[in-house]
């Protein structure tokens, strides 16, 4: 039995990451200055964050990372990011009656932000309750977490580039990491640049919609805020009505960008390099697009034929082609890859339609995208392996590799994917049962489907669930035990379980 | 011609035997027993030594050789020998290789390894197997341009879909050209309105895939198609290549390989082939997998005894056609006497290919049709030759002779010739020509 994690080196690396991440709070500080708001919240937060970072860094001035340390750094960095990210919520919320004044709520909101979940504990979202600066910080955490904190740090910090590939592998969504360039820092930079590019394009589009009066509510502030939370498949919105606050034209503009966010960003890199076949012939990409279109079509038809009552937010869909199409496409584009925006209060839809949404949430985005969930590629491999096993049971002598778009999938990868999916489903089911029991314990029980949706919405980084946890509801009323569990679910869901588990079982000698 | 051959094994000996009567042949081998034998057996000069070493090549006067052939059993030796020969400015080098990797490299750039022509034994054997099993309806099949183009002669039956159609109507196969029709033994050059009658023999030139497609169409019963069962026993390089070429032709086969790692590799490389991992000499397994119902069994194991065993087993189970690879040339007749339909020896195949190439190096390749009424030639067009620069339609009008261009190979790619295609210098063309005009046409290129 040997403890193989070098705790000092791990903490030191985490410290560097926290230090630089705290610098990102300069943006909400600027917002605070512009809107004549309290600047001390963010000045103090930056100071505390940098101080924590520097202290941790001091633990080991010349850290060296082993393979297990890399897993630990990634897990700890995400946890610490959430902790430091919660400081402004706590400082701003303390004493003014906001839910965010409670440490668990603040951590929940922060973890939900960084992991691009988009589940919120604030019942009331308004500038009366929260400052422009705090709400912008909420959006920014999603954007920072979207492409990955570690990817960002590898891109900008030379000292992380050495172990960059290992670090990024632990953070990357989906099985394995696609290295695009010989140098990992270059890959990280390329991914972030593409991500920033799309974000900028969306911001400009939204801004134009706002100034041309096509979307009257789309102020420059909103254009920036929503640009920050769309590409990372986040789902936070400074508007209480989420995207329903904007005109149908603006809602249509969001749809393609949400779909984009669920695509493997490496494919865009190939596209920019004049290699479109990489994208067009990518099996996961094609399946993903097919699923989005197919599921959106089914939902739209369902809504057109009365799959939902007339809701206050979202309006009449029965017999209304444009609205049925828009609500169907928007909700699928938002829930499938775990964004979590809403243009309709789907928590009030027919129960059958709600079950359909639950199914949609199960899919997830693509590997290498900013989306959460099990991911399209894993479903493909799981289904293909299942078919292979059935076939070889009948034909025991046949040797048949699992193929994905003609490419053979290595058996070790297949096994990894099966184990991951099993683990994911197990944790999802156990958590759902826990949530059910825990809410019943405090006398405010969720229904079965609501508990399952809540579990899925957090581990899958979706955000809104069903019932009182729907898109216009809040997680605030849940017992603290459930909230803590959900914080963990969001954390392990974003990092895809293994790095976090490895942190706890690091001492086990295998 | 002055010919230098490195390697006096079965391949080298066979080539030497066919070239010795007309040419000045020098054979180099490292084994003195072999060179001694050869010296007295055939009228050739032998040198004992390392064929890759420059002093040995100097002694063999490689500098003045017209053709240099490296055909030992070892790929690297052959490639290095050719490389060495090029330092003497050998005018034309031929290398025999087993590995298709070397072939692929050479195909990317034919200056590679200093080899001017590369013969890949295993690939050649596999192509041979596929030809044998793939086109039983064909009266005659010949490969051209290193296998990129095939010429095939088919008898058109009463029930053939192209019977009683004009050539224009029948011309619905991509990259396939009708080059000749034999009606009652008389050759005619097909024009668009020529009618194909039952009992005619049609000569077509095109890519191997299109010829296969044509065969499927005109003789669906005897030509293997998707519904036919092809079982390949043994995942050797030959077995693998055979399955691969069958996949290319749209035929899927079952491939049986005993070694688990090799089986896994084969399954990865051959997506449309069902790879089974089992001992193919296990009769219970063969019955369980209904190998007896297979239409064709190809035995491509590494050892002759095991090939014999599998072939005999397959025949006894009632398989229609059994094709076996036979490593030792001496056993070929034994196999065929026992009742194996076709026995193919890789070394013989290689020696034949090299010999044929050597003979026909001017008009690169020749097939003779129907009592020498017509010949199919492969010609390489030189700069400024009489055939280039004009559309084929004009060319045919200008030259008053019976000839048809069946295929063009441009930059190692197959181009289907049509009336408006313009020939370019450097092209290779496969043409059918009346025998009396053959020499004249060859001179024009």
Automatic annotation (TrEMBL), chain A:
Q: What's an example of a GO molecular-function annotation for this chain? A: potassium:chloride symporter activity
Presence of keyword Cell inner membrane: yes
List all membrane-crossing ranges.
12-33, 39-59, 71-91, 143-162, 190-211, 249-272, 288-308, 355-381, 413-435, 484-508
The membrane topology noted for this protein in its Swiss-Prot or TrEMBL record is: Multi-pass membrane protein
Could you tell me the keywords of this UniProt record? Answer: Cell inner membrane, Cell membrane, Ion transport, Membrane, Potassium, Potassium transport, Transmembrane, Transmembrane helix, Transport
Question: Pfam families this protein is in?
Answer: TrkH (PF02386)
The entry's localization annotation reads: Cell inner membrane
Q: Which GO terms describe its cellular component?
A: plasma membrane
Q: Which residues form a coiled coil?
A: none
Entry keyword annotation includes Transmembrane helix: yes
Family, according to the entry, reads as follows: Belongs to the TrkH potassium transport family.
Return the protein name: Trk system potassium uptake protein TrkH
TrEMBL record, chain B:
Family annotation (InterPro entries): K_uptake_TrkA, NAD(P)-bd_dom_sf, RCK_C, RCK_C_sf, RCK_N, Trk_Ktr_HKT_K-transport
* Positions of transmembrane segments: none
Determine the domain of life of the protein's source. Archaea
Alphabetized UniProt keyword annotations: Ion transport, NAD, Potassium, Potassium transport, Transport
Domain (RCK N-terminal): residue spans on this chain: 1-119, 227-344
According to the UniProt record, one GO cellular component term is:
plasma membrane
GO MF term set: potassium ion transmembrane transporter activity
Q: What is the lineage of its organism?
A: Archaea, Methanobacteriati, Methanobacteriota, Stenosarchaea group, Halobacteria
Looking up Pfam families in the UniProt record yields:
TrkA_C, TrkA_N
Q: Please describe what this protein does.
A: Part of a potassium transport system.
Q: What is this protein called?
A: Trk system potassium uptake protein TrkA
- Indicate the segments forming the RCK C-terminal domain, all copies: 139-220, 364-445
């Amino acid at each position: 039995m040997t403890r193989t994690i070098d705790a000092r080196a791990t903490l030191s690396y985490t410290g560097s990451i926290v230090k630089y991440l705290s610098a990102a709070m300069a943006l909400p500080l600027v917002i605070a200055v512009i809107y004549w708001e309290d600047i001390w919240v963010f000045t103090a937060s930056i100071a505390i964050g940098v101080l924590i970072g520097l202290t941790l860094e001091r633990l080991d001035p010349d850290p060296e990372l082993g393979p297990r340390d890399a897993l630990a750094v990634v897990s700890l960095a995400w946890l610490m990011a959430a902790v430091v990210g919660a400081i402004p919520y706590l400082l701003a919320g303390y004493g003014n009656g906001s839910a965010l004044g409670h440490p668990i709520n603040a951590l929940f909101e922060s973890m939900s932000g960084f992991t691009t979940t988009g589940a919120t504990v604030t019942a009331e979202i308004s500038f009366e309750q929260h400052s422009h600066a705090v709400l912008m910080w909420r959006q920014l955490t999603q954007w920072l977490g979207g492409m990955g904190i570690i990817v960002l740090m590898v891109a900008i910090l030379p000292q992380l580039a050495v172990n960059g590939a290992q670090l990024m592998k632990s953070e990357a969504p989906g099985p394995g990491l696609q290295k695009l360039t010989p140098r990992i820092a270059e890959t990280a930079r390329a991914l972030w640049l593409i991500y920033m590019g799309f974000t900028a394009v969306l911001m400009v589009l939204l801004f134009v919609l706002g100034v041309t009066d096509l979307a009257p509510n789309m102020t420059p502030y909103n254009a920036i805020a929503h640009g920050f939370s769309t590409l990372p498949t986040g789902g936070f919105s400074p508007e209480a009505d989420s995207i329903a606050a904007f005109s149908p034209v603006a809602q249509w503009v969001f749809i393609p960008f949400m779909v984009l966010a669920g695509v493997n960003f490496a494919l865009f890199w190939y596209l920019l390099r004049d290699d479109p076949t990489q994208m067009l012939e990518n099996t996961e990409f094609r399946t993903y697009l097919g699923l989005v279109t197919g599921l959106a079509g089914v939902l739209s038809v369902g809504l057109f034929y009365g799959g939902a009552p007339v809701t206050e937010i979202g309006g009449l869909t029965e017999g209304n082609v444009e609205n049925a199409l828009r609500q169907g496409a928007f909700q699928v584009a938002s829930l499938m890859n775990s964004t979590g925006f809403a243009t309709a209060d789907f928590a009030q839809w027919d129960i059958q339609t709600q079950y359909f949404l639950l199914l949609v949430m199960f899919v997830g985005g693509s590997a290498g995208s900013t989306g959460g969930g099990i991911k399209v590629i894993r479903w493909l491999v799981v289904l293909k392996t299942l078919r292979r096993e059935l076939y070889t049971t009948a034909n025991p002598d046949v040797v048949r590799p699992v193929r994905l778009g003609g490419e053979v999938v290595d058996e070790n990868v297949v096994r990894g994917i099966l184990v991951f999916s099993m683990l994911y489903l197990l944790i999802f089911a156990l958590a759902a049962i826990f949530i059910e029991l825990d809410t019943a314990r405090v006398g405010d029980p969720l229904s079965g489907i609501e508990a399952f949706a809540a579990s899925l919405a957090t581990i899958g980084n979706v955000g809104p669930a069903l019932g009182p946890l729907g898109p216009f509801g809040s997680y605030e009323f849940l017992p603290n035990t459930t909230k803590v569990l959900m914080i963990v679910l969001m954390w392990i869901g974003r990092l895809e379980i293994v790095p976090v588990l490895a942190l706890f079982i690091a001492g086990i000698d295998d | 011609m002055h010919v230098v051959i490195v390697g006096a094994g079965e391949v080298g000996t066979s080539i030497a035997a066919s070239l010795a009567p007309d040419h000045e042949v020098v054979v180099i081998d490292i084994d003195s027993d072999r060179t001694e034998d050869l010296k007295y057996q055939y009228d050739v000069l032998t040198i004992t030594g390392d064929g890759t070493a420059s002093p040995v090549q100097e002694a063999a006067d490689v500098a003045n050789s017209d053709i240099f052939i490296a055909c030992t059993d070892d790929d690297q030796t052959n490639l290095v020998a050719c490389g060495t020969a090029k330092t003497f400015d050998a005018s034309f080098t031929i290398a025999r290789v087993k590995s298709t990797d070397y072939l692929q490299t050479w195909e990317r750039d034919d200056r590679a390894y200093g080899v001017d022509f590369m013969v890949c034994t295993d690939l050649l054997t596999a192509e041979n197997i596929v030809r044998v099993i793939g086109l039983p309806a064909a009266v005659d099949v010949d490969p051209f341009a290193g296998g990129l183009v095939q010429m095939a002669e088919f008898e058109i039956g009463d029930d053939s879909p192209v019977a009683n159609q004009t050539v224009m109507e029948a011309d619905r196969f991509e990259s396939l050209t009708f080059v000749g029709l034999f009606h009652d033994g008389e050759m005619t050059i097909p024009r668009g309105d020529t009618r194909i009658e039952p009992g005619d023999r049609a000569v077509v030139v095109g890519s191997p895939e299109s010829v296969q497609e044509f065969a499927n169409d005109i003789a669906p019963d005897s030509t293997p198609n998707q519904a036919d069962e092809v079982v390949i026993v043994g995942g050797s390089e030959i077995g693998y290549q055979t399955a691969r070429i069958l996949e290319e032709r749209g035929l899927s086969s079952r491939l049986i390989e005993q070694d688990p790692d090799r089986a896994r590799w084969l399954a990865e490389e051959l997506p449309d082939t069902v790879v089974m991992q089992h001992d193919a000499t296990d009769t219970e397994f063969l019955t369980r997998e209904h190998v007896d119902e297979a239409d064709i069994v190809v035995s491509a194991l590494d050892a002759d005894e095991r090939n014999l065993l599998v072939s005999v087993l397959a025949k006894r189970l009632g398989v229609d056609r059994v094709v076996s690879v036979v490593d030792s040339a001496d056993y070929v007749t034994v196999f065929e006497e026992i009742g194996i339909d076709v026995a193919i020896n890789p070394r013989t195949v290689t020696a034949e290919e090299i010999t044929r190439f050597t003979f026909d190096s001017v008009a690169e390749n020749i097939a003779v049709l129907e009592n020498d009424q017509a010949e199919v030639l492969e010609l390489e067009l030189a700069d400024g030759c009489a055939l280039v620069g004009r559309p084929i339609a004009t060319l045919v009008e200008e030259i008053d002779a019976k000839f048809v261009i069946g295929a063009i190979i441009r930059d190692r790619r197959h181009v289907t010739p049509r009336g408006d295609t313009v020939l370019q210098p450097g092209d290779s063309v496969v043409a059918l020509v009346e025998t009396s005009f053959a020499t004249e046409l060859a001179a024009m290129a």
